[in-house]
Amino acid sequence: MILDNGWVYRRSSKIPLFNWKNKIKEFIVTTDLSDYGTVKTDKERNEKRSFRAPSEDDWTLLKKKTESDIDKSQKSVGCYIYDTLLQNPTQKINGKLVRTIERKYYKQELRSILDKQKEFHIKLQNPELYNACLEELYKNNESHRKSIASKDFTHLLLNDIIFYQRPL
Asked: Is the pLDDT of residue 14 over 70?
């Protein structure tokens, strides 16, 4: 079968492919490379590729695909979702468009939001208020209080409050 982009998709199956016409199928495609880093070709000099359709329960592949789509868009998660909804208002978000992604995507977006908010809220830039917060939050943990004393509210909110993870 020849796909819209010109790639050749071969598979042996008992299920005929005629019901694929005019349908969109998602694949994870890998190009086979030789030991020297060159692309392998078949007898007809076509690049050798492996096609794999992620199943609904293969969350690792779905995660990689979602992260790849977000990276290609060069947008934050929120902007990616918003722009997708503008194009397709009936798009299901949870469990479909963004099923699972690394927390770093959410942290990057929140960091951008907090950095922008600092421009409008002078209290988020106040070192005395920041130190008062540290005193209140870490009354009994002086070493941690000292370790983040040179940081700012963005760091405190991101790493100590919202995305806090205790060491294993």
From this structure: no
